[in-house]
Amino acid sequence: MARRRVAFRKKRQNRLGMTLVTIVVIMLFAVIMIKSIDLKAKKAAYDEKEVTLEQQIEDEKARTEELIEYEKYTKTAKYVEEVAKDKLGLVYEDEIIFESEDGN
User: Fold this and answer.
1) In terms of pTM, does the model score above 0.70?
2) How many domains does the chain have?
3) Residue at 38 is within a domain
4) Who contacts 73 (Cβ-Cβ below 8 Å, separation ≥6)?
5) Is 97 a domain residue?
6) Average confidence (pLDDT) over 6-27
7) Which domain holds residue 12?
8) Which helix H or strand E contains 65, and what residues bound it?
9) Is residue 95 one of the residues assigned to a domain?
């Protein structure tokens, strides 16, 4: 009879242990799934940010090219002539200027 009680007690303890282990495994699985979803959301946000930043890089490269072309243009005689005419009102000696009647 004593053996039966011991065997029953061990069987009961074994079930309790298995139940606790199962609960712990399920909890770990739930935590891992929640973190996985969170990481996927962060990855999507970072991917979107990466696309935006790459577009900004491309825009800045294009702007850099424009600035390089403008720099080359500002070093030409044509640019100097345009600035002298527009901002300083200078003209060549043999150049004739016509003004409109309304003063523009």
Assistant:
1) no
2) 1
3) yes
4) 79
5) no
6) 83
7) 2-86
8) helix 2-74
9) no
